[in-house]
């Protein structure tokens, strides 16, 4: 494979400087010309919250009708004692989906530690998308066992499935669908500063990488900066370093050298611009919990609050939290992680209401994969399909979209040990978000390359309005 100059520079710059600067440089190389920004006048943002390790969403969307609950409890009997009663049926938070008739009398609930998200579901501000995961085309148990239908590569591998969720391909993929969505927004002229189109609170994330955009990384209290610029009290030294990293005096003819100098200069300028806008922000009154995920979402909320200063009308964000690889001590560990996710998303939703963009920001969850229905003792093993939440004022909520497999083994979507073969692909999950974001059919096809293989009606096509 040939290596383009832009990709070489990406490798040089991403390790030491803000990756956002590479976007500007890459676009200059492509000769990209923006459309008229007046074509997009409203604001919309997508916020992905990734639960690293593979979240056991059997433990998020729980069976509640007596027969299903009894089956679930019997299958996981070895773990139930560790929950200290929190998975007893009378402690669960029953759901009342408006489409309850779709499930033949089956009922569902959420765990008590997720009361915030339960409340958003019941108020119509959140919905579940059931049994979602990477697929190449529709697949059932018989086809899985016979090998007659292709399946994603490296199933049950953390790194590869994180990549497949982000980019429809295993580790080594270049572009994520969040980045592709932002590419389309940049092409429409929605963002004057394309560098702020995709923003990550955790690192140089594949999901946010497009052909025209690269993720801009923010810290928990502002943009990440070059450490040396803030380590000296002496103004002369600080100014000298500022000139150095801005490459003010660089006049060499070497092509790569000039490009790196441009990267350094743009990085300093962007970070200063971002931090100045945050410094002028009136603090949000919404109180966020004291957790790493909540701190990321508070930083994202602050970034949305300064959207006009950043000259953007379409943005995609990424936050992530670990701890979900629960091969052991799941009953002791998972409730705390689920409580964190629920409280952080609930606070973020409140902050969006405070900013007046509650219907303009859609938050959704994702994870490497689900986990087995079968317990391995005091934990669960790597699975496949999982249940996810979509939250926001644009969500047609209080619904469970798709099919929820029964809490038993050997059904049509059981790949073994209760690993759910997805009935909704990641592309189908993402498609209505892209449509809501403003993408047309051809842009969706480019962003979601496997979408065309799912020809039946998409169960989640109307989740956003």
Automatic annotation (TrEMBL):
Designated name of the protein: Tat pathway signal protein
Database matches in PANTHER family: BLL7424 PROTEIN, DUF1501 DOMAIN-CONTAINING PROTEIN
Pfam families linked: DUF1501
The species this protein was found in: Hyphomonas adhaerens MHS-3
Domain of life according to the entry: Bacteria
